[in-house]
Amino acid sequence: MSTSQEPMKRTEVTAAELEAEIRSGTPITILDVRDSATFDDWQIAPEGATLINVPLAQLERDPVGFAAAAARAPQTVRVLCTRGRTSETATDLLRDAGVDAMSVAGGMIAWSRLLTPDVVPVPSAATIVQFRREARGCLSYLVASAGEALVVDPAPDVGPYVTEAGRQGAQITHVLDTHVHADHLSGLRALAAATGAQMHLSTGALARGADAAGVVAVRDGDRIRVGDADVRVIGLPGHTTDNVGVVVDGVAVIAGDSLFVDSVARPDLEAGDAGAADAARLLHRTLHERLLPLGEDVVLLPCHYGGGRRSAPVAATLGAVRAATPLLGLDAEAFAAEVLAAMPPRPQNYLEIIAANLTPAGDNDDDDDVAALEVGANNCAATNVGS
Known about the structure:
- The protein is of the alpha/beta class.
- The chain folds into two domains: 12-110, 3-Layer(aba) Sandwich (Oxidized Rhodanese, domain 1); 114-374, Ribonuclease Z/Hydroxyacylglutathione hydrolase-like (Metallo-beta-lactamase, Chain A).
- The chain has 14 helices and 18 strands.
- The protein has helices spanning 15-24, 36-41, 56-61, 63-72, 86-96, 107-112, 159-167, 188-195, 203-207, 268-291, 318-324, 332-342, 350-357, 368-371, and strands at residues 12-13, 28-32, 50-53, 76-80, 101-104, 116-120, 127-133, 138-145, 148-152, 171-176, 198-202, 215-218, 223-226, 229-235, 244-248, 252-254, 299-301, 316-317.
- It has a seven-stranded mixed β-sheet.
- The longest helix is centred in the C-terminal third of the chain and has 24 residues, at 268-291.
- The radius of gyration is 22 Å and the shape is globular.
C-alpha cells in the first residue's frame, strides 16, 4: 500500500531570490532580526519593500503579536540576519504562529556578495564588463578580447566572472588585484584556481608581504596580453603604496582605489594616522601627474562607488570627474588637509581583511570566520560617498 506525501514547503530563499523580489517590486516585508546597533550600522537597501528591525529576543517574547500585525497588513515575510542562522530560528517561530515567512540563506553576508554585471560602452574593440557589488559599493571588471579575458579586483564569489567570460566567448587567462584591499576580501586566488588564469599583483603588494606563490608581479609600464587589447599597467600610489590600475586601449582606465567618479581615495588604511598626510600628498601627485593627464575623454572606471542599485555602469570621463570633484582643484597642501578632514570611520575589520588578503586564506569563501570579516559599512573613500 503506497501513501502519498505532500511536498515539503520551502522555508528559505536565496539572497539572489530576495534581491530579485526587491527589484521586481514584489510586496514583501523584510524582517531583520539582528540587534538594533548592528542593524543601524549596516542594513539591506529595501527600495519598495518594507524593512523592519525586530531583534530575535524581542520576537521570541511575542511571535503571536507579530503574526497578528502581519495579518493586518498581509505581505510575504523574508527573515534576515547576519549569516542566515538566527533567521532560521525566527522563521520557525513565525511559521508556527501562522506567518508566511522564509529565512534568507546566508543572511546579509550572502546578500552583500551579489554581483550585477553590465557592459561598459567604450570606444574599444575589447569588451569591458563592470561587476557592481551593489550592497558594498565594490566594482570589479572583466576585459575580454579575441577569446581571452582579464579580471580586475575579483570579489570572493568568482562564479559570475566565469559565467560572463563564457558569455563573451572568452577564457579567463589573467587576474589582477589593483592593491591589497582593506575593505573586502579578494577572489584573486579562488578565480585563478577555478580557471587556471595567471595571477598578477604589483611589486608594491609583494613588498607589503602578499603571498608571491604563483604570482607574476607587475609594475608601472608593464603590459598584460589579453587577446588583441592593449592593456598597460599604470602605477597609482597614494591610497596605498602598491595601488595600480590598467589602461585599456588608451580609452579607459580601471583605476583601483585612486579616483572615484565623485571623490578620491582615503590615504590612511596602509599609512595610518602618522603617514596619512604624506600619503595624501602622494595621491595628489598621482592624480595630477599620472591619472588626469591620460586625457579628458578617457573613461574612468573606478573600483568603488557609493553603493546601491544602478541600472547602468558607474563610469565617467576624466574631464567630467575633474569638473565634479572640487578636491581636484586644490594644491597639494590644501588637498591633503581637506582629505584628512573628510574621512569617515575606517572600514570595520580592515586590519583583519588586509591580513587575510595578504595570504591565500583571504580567498577562502567557505570559511565562516573569514566571510564574516565583510560585515559592516564600507568606507574607503575620503568623503562619505561609500566605497
